[in-house]
Amino acid sequence: MGRKPLDIDKILTDLVLTDDTLTKKKLAKKIWGIAYKKGIYPSSIHDYYMARGRDEFKGSTVPAINLRTLTYDLAKAIFRVGKKNNAKAFIFEIAKSEMGYTAQTPAEYSAVILAAAIKEGFSGPVFIQGDHFQANLKKYQENPAKEIDALQAIITEAVAAGFYNIDIDSSTLVDLSKPKVKDQQYLNYEVCAKLTQFIRRIQPKGLTVSVGGEIGEVGHQNSTCEDLRAYMEGFKQRLRKGLIGISKISIQTGTSHGGVVLPDGSIAQVKLDFDTLLKLGEIARKEFGMGGAVQHGASTLPEEAFHKFAECQTCEVHLATGFQNMVFDSKHFPADLKKKIYDWLKVNAANEAKAGETEEQFFYKTRKKALGPFKKDIMNLPQVTRDAIASEIENKFDFLFKQLNAVNNANLVDKYVVLKRVIMRKRQDAAAVVHDGQGAD
User: For the chain, is the Cβ count within 10 Å smaller at the N or the C terminus?
Assistant: First the structure.
């Protein structure tokens, strides 16, 4: 008798739909094993960014895409776009907050991404990133040690799940009431340095996790050259001597997460400060050897803005809400399910309603909170429906890859990113690299 053909779709569906933690863990481990055999390796983009910092290449921007729903279907679409455009420099990410309201743990998220790579016949490095591992200002003020412990716990869980790219967001701790810029940034660089040291301690041996810092909280005042220099000088002083620091820096240029929704449900136009991106990116590379500056909150920008990121040498751009909107607003998304979700929001998110806002504004703002409770409903949509929605968004992915000049970079990625197979021992800090290579073992 011949060997039974691999049904990655069934393995993946069982993993997402099961509520049993042990079963989920076993299925995730199975997907990892298949991925390695197919030459698919969770990887760090650190060395690629360091080469960018040395000006060994330029003129392209890495898309970092948050997948909140239909994760498997949209990840498959991204891998198809990558193969079509000879591209490997793209990141799958999920923020700490998104893990909660979308009901996607780090272990599940990474397994879904790897399953998508298997399904689409992709091979090589897969970059999975923890986005906005953010310090909560109120909790930090009440008990700094407890908040640091909580961040270290999610970092440990993420790294154990193959998130070899972590964005630390301690910009929430910036205190603009202080007269000196370095004093404003003090807690920001202090906490980032402390967490970077923690990551260096727990990262798998032989692998350098890519760590990102942030100097300006998205939605607040724009970052300055003085902010960046003050932060980086303080960070370098606080980081233990001999340790590798951060590979990129997120800045504020005028955007906000999710965009600003108008009363009719449309998105307000944003005036993005590309000059700030250009200047701070140059400082990040030339003075501090990083890959450059990172732009958050970009998915709801007008299409004509995206080509400017590559022109301004932006290192990385984060894209999230726009794809969620395309799912909800697709003509293929079942009207009855959408009504069910919106009725649920009226009850379960009622405390988030604000005086004077329209129903469109309320639903736009809160509907992401329904993605976890309705994850199984969305996952159980007919495959033809999921494929139709994914096809629409795949066209958007392809457009963005081209606009960001995130194409024809496979050779560069292969040059700088060494594939490493990691086996996690019982203790995360005992993780070991057991295979180096450029293909399947």
Answer: N
